[in-house]
């Protein structure tokens, strides 16, 4: 048998621990510092798996948040490390390598380079193995709705790799993996992996902030948590809470509506009653009239006592249309408008998020939705020049996670203003119209 030598020399931790572990485990989460060699190691793991696979026409994928990013990070590595394999074919337009098939007349084993911003490239097919890089920036539904089902037919593997970027969905899946005997996990810091020599490490630290050092080099998921409004641990606990009737009974039904602005933004409608939040309604591509119709339907169906609607961009037209049709129990919310506690918050957006934080601390329960949990736990705050709390701009959040935090904003809107609790028969004032209590401040 002819021996083929590829130009890959795995680092000790890859050779002695990670590669052997991946031979045993179908699922894995690998947390490692910058310049650890995560991409190179995984590209070669995919190549090995493709060569050894005995099924007909195997398919593998390396997935990064964006296609251009995936191409820049991994494509040249894939071509280089497979260059010694006879019969290899390179498809530059569709970014895949095809290795010789073990089956006569069958398509060879293919390894694709794919961006999570093009989910259709992963949908509707099977996968024998997938690597998800920088999972914190990938839409979480891609895993549960697209990739995981596509692995089922052929019992394919999935490996998550990345460096911490706060307590988000990557942190959550790492925590979940640590609790499971079916998952392999590892975490390697720059000061213990041996990849970077002491002089280079010291030089890097001189040019980095303390948070950057803790996060990028020491793999500390809590590095940026000091200025995160809602910690991921609190969000995770809220998604697993079981409520009792008393937690909801007698509380007003409040809707929060975040109206989409453009592009991939979504219109979200949340229903909250007491400590309970229902699974939201999520829409894309609606015009003003369609959005108003969906909101009215939600108001009628849920007998909402108050509906808070984001008045930005398309929101103003939606509000006007709903009022035109005779609905008065709605309140427009300008995210940049004044907070009730204006001595503490720069605007109502910051106030709503911190009210939501207190609600979660008091026992609030949310739907177990990865995307909602990720959005809630990624919003950061700082202090304005006036010494008031202000949140990270939505544009920065969108740049970080690849989408607008429409789910988090929709839920936050249910905290825009206090709403009177429901009155029971026999209570003084029973039967009066429910309304938003704009004069009352909880601070």
UniProtKB/TrEMBL annotation:
Gene3D superfamilies: 3.30.420.240, P-loop containing nucleotide triphosphate hydrolases
Pfam families xref list: Terminase_6N
Taxonomic superkingdom: Bacteria
InterPro entries according to UniProt: P-loop_NTPase
Protein name per its UniProtKB record: Terminase-like family protein
Source species of the chain: Phascolarctobacterium faecium
């Amino acid at each position: 048998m002819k021996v083929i030598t590829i130009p890959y020399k795995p680092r000790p931790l890859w050779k002695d621990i990670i590669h052997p572990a991946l031979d045993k485990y179908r699922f894995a989460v690998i947390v490692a510092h910058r310049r650890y060699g995560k991409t190179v190691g995984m590209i070669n793991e995919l190549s090995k798996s493709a060569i050894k696979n005995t099924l007909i026409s195997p398919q593998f994928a390396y997935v990064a948040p964006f296609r251009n990013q995936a191409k820049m990070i991994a494509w040249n590595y894939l071509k280089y490390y497979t260059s010694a394999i006879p019969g290899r074919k390179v498809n530059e337009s569709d970014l895949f390598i095809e290795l010789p098939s073990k089956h006569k007349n069958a398509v060879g084993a293919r390894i694709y380079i794919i961006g999570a911003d093009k989910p259709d490239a992963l949908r509707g097919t099977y996968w024998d193995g997938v690597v998800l890089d920088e999972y914190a920036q990938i839409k979480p539904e891609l895993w549960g709705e697209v990739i995981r089902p596509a692995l089922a037919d052929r019992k394919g593997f999935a490996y998550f790799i990345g460096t911490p970027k706060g307590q988000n969905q990557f942190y959550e899946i790492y925590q979940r993996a640590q609790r499971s005997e079916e998952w392999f996990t590892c975490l390697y810091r720059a000061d213990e992996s041996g990849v970077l020599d002491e002089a280079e490490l010291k030089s890097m630290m001189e040019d980095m902030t303390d948070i950057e050092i803790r996060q990028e080099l020491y793999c500390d998921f809590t590095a940026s948590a000091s200025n995160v409004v809602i910690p991921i641990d609190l969000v995770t606990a809220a998604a697993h809470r079981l409520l009792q009737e008393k937690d909801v009974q007698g509380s007003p039904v409040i809707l929060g509506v975040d109206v989409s602005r453009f592009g991939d933004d979504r219109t979200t409608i949340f229903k909250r009653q007491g400590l309970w939040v229902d699974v939201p309604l999520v829409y894309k591509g609606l015009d003003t009239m369609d959005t108003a119709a969906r909101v009215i339907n939600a108001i009628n169906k849920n007998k909402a006592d108050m509906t808070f609607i984001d008045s930005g961009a398309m929101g103003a037209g939606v509000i006007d249309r709903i009022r035109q049709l005779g609905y008065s129990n709605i309140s427009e919310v300008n995210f940049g408008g004044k907070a009730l506690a204006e001595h503490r918050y720069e605007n109502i957006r910051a106030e709503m998020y911190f009210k939501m934080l207190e609600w979660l601390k008091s026992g609030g329960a949310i739907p177990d939705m990865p995307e909602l949990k990720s959005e809630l736990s990624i919003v950061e705050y700082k202090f304005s020049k006036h010494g008031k709390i202000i949140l990270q701009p939505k544009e920065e959040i969108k740049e970080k996670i690849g989408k607008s935090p429409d789910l988090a904003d929709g839920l936050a809107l249910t905290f825009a203003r206090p709403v009177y609790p429901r009155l029971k028969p026999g209570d003084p004032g029973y039967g009066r119209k429910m309304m938003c209590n704009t004069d009352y401040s909880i601070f």
